[in-house]
Amino acid sequence: xxxxxxxxxxxxxxxxxxxxxxxxxxxxxxxxxxxxxxxxxxxxxxxxxxxxxxxxxxxxxxxxxxxxxxxxxxxxxxxxxxxxxxxxxxxxxxxxxxxxxxxxxxxx
Length: 108
Description:
The chain has three helices and four strands. The protein is α+β, with helices and mostly antiparallel strands. The chain has a single domain, classed as CATH 3.30.1320.10. Strand 1 and strand 2 form a beta hairpin.
């Protein structure tokens, strides 16, 4: 699986794009380091070994949803749309809907 491994100081994350087994922790070691991603900078910097990324994808490695979206944004893969990387539970969705209704009720 192609995943991000968090590095960096507190509130200044940088990430490595790694290949690791899905069941393993990202900090437990990886098969190969494929690049780096710095989301904190104004220009979000993504450095990749494009040939190696395409190789791992051709062999059958699945990217995580965040990695999929990054690869799609940079034109490395040409899939039809982005994947959702954040999922809300039913409990959280109902809380958000209730909060919206409370805001709308006094205004009406």
